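Order emerges. For instance:

***
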Amino acid sequence: MEALIGSTLAVAIAEMGDKTQLLALLLVGRYGRPALICLGILVATIINHGFSAWLGDWLGGLIPPTWLPWIIGTSFLAVALWMLIPDKEDGGDGRFAALGPFGATCMLFFLAEIGDKTQIATVVLAAKYSATWMVIIGTTLGMLLANVPVVIFGRWILQRINLKWVHIGAFVLFLGFALASFWQGF
């Protein structure tokens, strides 16, 4: 249960102000089909974070157990610092427009998550916990918690949230994860 809750919270908070939220806003503005866009986010996230979690689980099995808290703590610290750098919009979805709202969302979200902080966090979380499926479910739920409201209420929400404080909150969360891992290493 710790893996599920920790993964959900980590990704939901890390995703606030992320480029995929900007992408969700662009997609809903272009297609106006929130249900298909939300379904596309779900499918892309399950595939992307599934691969990431299995990679993290595999890496966790290769690393000596005494090193794991230090590597995970350092990784969480890096993600925490990364949270202080806000994402910028990556561009349009012109190449994928012919795929329609579901296909364009799947492709664009999958590509946007490659190398993203939430993908890296998924690898680290899967290495930390032995419950790979709970990490996949948790990170997927976190992605949906952060992006579905943007699809539904996008413009209204973004006018009322100060993203600077969201990034600081995410920094504090990942810093807490890092400190907990370092503490475990002692």
About this structure: The CA atoms of residues 126 and 132 lie 6 Å apart.
